[in-house]
Amino acid sequence: MSTIDRPHSGGDDATPSRRKAFFLLSGNVFALGAVSLVTDISSEMMTAVLPVYLVVGLHLSPAAYGVVDGTYTGATALLRLIGGYVADLTRRRKFIAGLGYGLSAVAKLGMPAAGSAVGAIGAVIAVDRTGKGLRTAPRDALITLSTPPRLYGRAFGVHRTMDTIGAFVGPLVAIGILAATAQAYDAVFVASFCIAAFGVLILVLFVRDHRDEQPVKGAVSPRALGGLIRLTPVRRLVAAACLAGLVTIGDGFVYLLLQQREHLSVSWFPLLAVGTNLSYLVLATPLGLLADKIGRLTVVLGGYSALVLVYLLLFGPFGGTALLVVLALYGLFYAATDGVLMALAGPVLPKALRTTAIALIQTGQALSYLVSSVLFGLAWTLWGPANASRVAAGLVAVAVVVIAVLLRGVQAAGTAEDVAEAAEEHA
């Protein structure tokens, strides 16, 4: 944390080695990673128990769960755009992110109050996702503004690694609390709030805002927003993100399918998320480094190819240790796509509207994910889980080809930006 205000270029060495450049990532990246680590312990405690709490505890149908799960990720997604625009306009990205983290923390206390009322649970989830929607784009924008473009892959890789440490620990904490309290879900939700509040404190004390120079007059305006979507790279990124969200089913569905197939005890259900997060944790930084080296699009496409295998294997001839292969592939998918897609986008986004552009991409993906969750819940109900998951695998395979076509030009433009930035530093 002592290096937060240190610039990302090191001392008098104009051409630092790759190892040195890795360790000289801005301290702000590590501070934001620490906030995400603590917050994800809190979030994943709730996420890990929510599917089984709703489906097994409250007896929701798969279709009803699909609506709730879509709400969890897609609801209030348009607030991402509002938060991104306000962050760009005021240059107070830390404040907007902090507001989002705070809303999500308070929402955790709403779950015990909601009881078994599905409407109230949906409202609590909407508040929680409002917080996530507000914080994600300003946080990712701060990472790009604290890092030179050629290091975006490793910066997002390091951040997502720290984030996933929290995601790995969260379900374990939930299991411990459930075991100690005889399956008292309320205890999980209250503990989740306390941990989330600590994450907000870290943000306030250690994260530094990046007040870049004020944009020229009119660069951040409603008219500029219309011009943003007319930019070819932005259009292609939004289209690719929407398609990716549309063919991706929720984690809860994946874990419920595995739990039913393997007849896992409800008490051990959170361990499925632990397996995925362990894989994500191990692979996030190496894949970020690899993306900077061989091309970010290549890594993203590899991640979605792994997702095809995951969906096929949900009802494939596996059991025992093969279950671990499914969870490992699922973690690989997240490690290869989550931060790497933002690293791919970063170099081609206009600086004055960078937070808004990131929010636009994330909003498209979130809204598409909402539709996907509802449709998969209906497909499960009408066709059965096996057929629904195989159709999902086929759709992802088609999406890989389309995403490759959409983003090929974006990667070329981003590479040119990286080269130009490196030449500028050496001049």
How does this model look, in words?
The chain has 17 helices and no strands. The chain is mainly alpha-helical and 427 residues long.
Q: What structural class do helix, strand and pairing data support?
A: mainly alpha
Helix content: over 70%
Q: Counting H and I runs of at least 4 residues, what is the number of helices?
A: 17
Low-pLDDT segments, ≥5 res: 5-17
Taken as a percent bin, the fraction of beta residues is under 5%
| Rg | 21 Å
Number of strands: 0
- SSE succession: HHHHHHHHHHHHHHHHH
List its traits.
mainly alpha; 427 residues; globular; single chain
How would you summarize what this structure contains?
By secondary structure, the protein is mostly helical.
Ordered list of secondary-structure elements with their pairings:
Blueprint: H1 18-23, H2 27-57, H3 62-74, H4 78-90, H5 93-108, H6 110-114, H7 118-145, H8 152-180, H9 185-206, H10 222-230, H11 232-246, H12 251-262, H13 270-294, H14 296-313, H15 321-345, H16 354-383, H17 385-426
